[in-house]
Structures are given as C-alpha cells and as structure tokens.
Design brief:
The protein is mainly alpha-helical. It contains 7 helices and 4 strands. Strand 1 and strand 2 form a beta hairpin. The longest helix has about 35 residues. It is elongated.
Length: about 160
Amino acid sequence: MDRNAFGTFCLLLKNLGDLVDGKHVSVEEQVVMFLSILAHHEKNRVIKFSFMRFGETVTRYVHLVLKSILKEQVLMCALKDLVPHGWKSDNGFHTGYIVRCENAMKVSFSNTDLLAVPHITSKIISWKKSYGNILIAQSSGVGFNTTTGELDCIDEQ
C-alpha cells in the first residue's frame, strides 16, 4: 500500500469510522499495527516489540480498528440489501430505512448502543460529505469488494 492510500484509509477511519487518537497512540499507529497483524501475519508479541507497547495496548487498538471497519461494513451491507427489496427511490431511500439499518446493527452487534436517529443518520451524512475521499481511496489501492463484502488493499511492492 502506498503512502497516499494509507493516508486516505486513515482519514476515512477518522472521519467515517469514528476512530480517534488514543492517549499515547495515534490513529496512524493503530492502523499500522492492525495492518501488520492482518497483512503480514505477525503475532502480537512481534508487534509489541516493534512498537514498544504493552501486549494489552496492541490488542486494544487492533480491536478498535477492527470494530470500526466492521461497523462501516455492516451499515454498507444493510443499505445494499435494502435496494433489491424496493426501499430505494429516485432521490434516496423510502421512509423507515434507518430503522432497518438499526436492526441490522443489532443483529450483528448484539450489545451495540447505536440508535437510528442520532448515530446512523449522522454517519450517512458524513458518508455523503466524504464521498470524494471514498472515490480517491478506491482508485489508490483501497476499496470495497462488493462480491465478497470486504475491504480490499492492493499491495504494490
């Protein structure tokens, strides 16, 4: 992944995924730890040694990044599933689609505290504002694979 794609990915996780800087660990470092474990199959002990962090700190931030990505994926899949069932209109979705998204979140994350009106609506508004960044991310090696429903990163080494 090149630097531009990495920066765009971190920006999307900050703006859309509600990922914030920790007390001592920035979002970029959290994402690097996550990608190192995911892409290079490194163990927690190796990451702990490389980043000079406690093992619990590495685990906590890797789980935060993963949870942030999964929340976005569940909402995207919920919206994508509403389209073939007649919820999509010419200028948006029909009334009540946000409640369906909230139910999808409760099915995937049983102990979630996300509500339809303050949380999901603000997330969709922020998606609309960051639409340009999402297009840039897809053209720079980071994208959403619609067939598998997963985030894709192209490695250009």
